[in-house]
Fold this protein.
Amino acid sequence: MSELKIAIIAHPKLADAMREAEVAATYLKNKGLHTAHGSIYNEELRRRVKSGEFDMVVAMGGDGTILRAGHLCAPCNIPILGLNKGRLGFLFQIDDRGWEHTLEQVISGDYWIEKRMMLRAEHFRAGESLGTWQAVNDVVIARGAMMRPIHIKASVDNQYLTTYIADGLIAATPTGSTAYAMAAGGPILPPELRNILLVPIAAHLSVDRALVLSEGATVSITVISENSIMSIDGQTPIGMDENDRVDVRAGENTVQFIRFGELDYFYRNLTAHMNQNSMIGLPR
């Protein structure tokens, strides 16, 4: 496996992750592998990843680093190995044997590739497209600085669904079902599904239940209020005007994660994360 080419990226605000990325890159170079490392925001390294120079990307950080790696790697069909240096890490497999053990498994080819759907969001104003985005987790339409709820009309495949009066509406992938959508009361979906999950945020006198849409559905979200924003995977919000529309459907890209062991790792991870609550196990 000496021909394997690996890029290691880390979040620059996580000093420990940046140090570990350098150590891991040295570790791999000493084994004869073609390796580069740097910040997730390093433009030269990003260019090299996009050019197809590497066979895989190792992302060191938290879930946010993995999401950014997904945006970078999915269009290039490059798989991602996540090494958790953050707090929660729902997108990581839990393994306390250290990154050396994990990288040895990669070098020996002892892994499998998990493919997860992404969302494609397109923003329209007065019939004109203002841009498109790909999301690993979710597309969120929410109220802006003002505290009052907003009115959001939702249609599915050009059929009117409902109008939400809420703080916002989340359109999530199964991957995103363990993120903001879960915090807003939505169900957890297995990662291999290709459904779109709709979850209202703090609905007021309107539909307050989550809805799972079938594969291939397109949901159109129109804001019938001022004071609203759109955020893709928790990134910098984009301002929306009254009557702006966002169309969300399954994206053309697929994010690929490197996984180890049995296929049921997701449920073991889920249980471990849920049990992080410090009150679990205490007598009542």
